[in-house]
């Protein structure tokens, strides 16, 4: 009987070793799986969309690049890894030009402590000219808690209604469509500043929901003649 007890104990230890090895193998498998999922999220984004290499996107000739200085208030030079949405704004300064708004963003670099933070990737002129203030591979200070995964477009407007000129509107459609395509966000990934903060920006598209819906339709329908 003593021998039988020892044999049973021996079998028990062998069984325990098997389950220990099995548990260790399962832990290793789980670690590899989680690492793979994490890598997939990094490369494709949490929503499964492929991430574009934003630093390699070449701006077409119809975009005028005048980057503002790197500074903590308007161009912190923080990398933008993924673009989930293109955010539409209006400058809220009737009659001002794209160059004036760009100069304002650049001038914020000269502030003292506790200054104002503001900027946008693009500003569209009343006559339709597009001025790029910040590379699309960097964040801008325009869209509050969405600065880290969006691109901001500011639009000039002639009066208090916030309605864009025909030239500004046409350039906005073209630029938005191009950004949706080049960043991998897709042409349905368009929102207003209002959709983030409930702020009446861009005012005309907040006051006129039908105009906002039409704008999104126009972006989706744009043919993508980027070389014009």
Beta-strand share of residues: 5-15%
Helix and strand succession? HEEHEEEHEHHH
Number of helices: 6
Shape: globular
Number of strands: 6
Overview of this protein structure:
The protein is α/β, with parallel strands linked by helices and 228 residues long. It contains 6 helices and 6 strands; from the N terminus they run H-E-E-H-E-E-E-H-E-H-H-H. The chain has helices at residues 2-44, 98-107, 166-183, 194-197, 203-207, 209-221; strands spanning 63-65, 85-90, 122-124, 130-132, 150-155, 190-192.
Question: Nutshell version of this structure?
Answer:
With 228 residues, the chain is an alpha/beta fold.
Essential attributes:
228 residues, alpha/beta, six-stranded mixed sheet, 6 strands, disordered N terminus
Secondary structure layout:
Elements: H1 2-44, E1 63-65, E2 85-90, H2 98-107, E3 122-124, E4 130-132, E5 150-155, H3 166-183, E6 190-192, H4 194-197, H5 203-207, H6 209-221
Parallel strand pairs: 1-4, 2-5, 2-6, 3-5
Antiparallel strand pairs: 3-4
Helix pairs in contact: 3-6
């Amino acid at each position: 009987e003593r021998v039988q007890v020892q044999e049973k104990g021996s079998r028990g230890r062998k069984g325990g070793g098997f389950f220990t090895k099995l548990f260790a193998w399962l832990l290793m498998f789980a670690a590899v799986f989680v690492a793979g999922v994490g890598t997939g999220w990094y490369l494709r984004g949490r929503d499964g969309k492929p991430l574009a290499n934003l630093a390699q996107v070449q701006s077409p000739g119809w975009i005028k690049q005048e980057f503002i200085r790197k500074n903590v208030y308007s161009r912190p030079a923080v990398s933008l890894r993924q673009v989930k949405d293109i955010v539409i704004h209006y400058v809220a300064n009737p009659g001002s030009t794209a160059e004036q708004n760009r100069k304002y963003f650049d001038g914020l670099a000269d502030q003292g402590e506790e200054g104002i933070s503001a900027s946008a990737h693009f500003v569209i002129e009343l006559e339709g000219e597009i001025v790029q203030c910040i590379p699309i591979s960097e964040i801008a200070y325009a869209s509050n808690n969405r600065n880290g995964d969006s691109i901001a477009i500011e639009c000039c407007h002639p009066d208090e209604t916030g309605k864009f000129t025909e030239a500004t509107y046409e350039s906005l459609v073209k630029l938005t469509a191009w950004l949706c395509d080049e960043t991998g966000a897709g042409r349905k990934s368009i929102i207003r500043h209002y959709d983030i903060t409930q702020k009446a920006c861009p005012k005309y598209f907040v006051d006129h929901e039908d105009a906002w819906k039409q704008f999104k339709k126009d972006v989706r329908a744009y043919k993508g003649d980027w070389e014009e």
